[in-house]
Amino acid sequence: MTRNQDAGLPLHASAVALDGRCVLIFGPSGSGKSTLALQLMAVGCALVSDDRTLVASQGDMLWAQAPDAIRNRIEARGVGVLMATAVRNARVVLIVDMGLEETDRLPPERFRDICGHTVPLLHKVVGPYFPAAILQYLKAGRVA
Fold first, then answer.
1. CA 132 → CA 51, 68, 70, 88, 118, distances in Å?
2. For position 144, what pLDDT does the model report?
3. CB proximity list for 61: less than 8 A, separation 6 or greater
4. How far apart are CA 79 and CA 64, in angstroms?
5. Residue 7: predicted pLDDT
6. What does the alpha-carbon distance between residue 85 and residue 90 come to, in Å, rounded to a whole number?
7. What are the mean pLDDT values of the chain's consecutive 10-residue runs (144 residues total)?
8. pLDDT at res. 129
């Protein structure tokens, strides 16, 4: 994906990546998108973009990147806007929707379509292990 902002569909989402594999974090304002991104960064993920993310399809992959105006920045409520070295782009492999809370212990597989790509979807989990579970998902995936 090029760095041209016109090359991507703008989404109201944050994104972090591990080894080039990206999770898009959706949700309404104040739902915890940046908080989850910061938690994932604390356990080894790299920032892609905070609050606004550009996605684009290239072949059979979906890519995410930050708009130039907000690259290398992430908001921490009550602290301010922090600097962070962001990766230029990463392949989207997971979506988390912070606007929907998971109630099942072992939820069914869910998916969301973005730009013609079907991407696995998780709902927000209220629990201190959620960032670690997402990290493990990025490392090794989920059993179907």
1. 21, 29, 26, 23, 24
2. 82
3. 91, 92, 117
4. 26
5. 64
6. 14
7. 60 98 97 97 98 96 97 96 97 98 97 97 97 97 91
8. 96
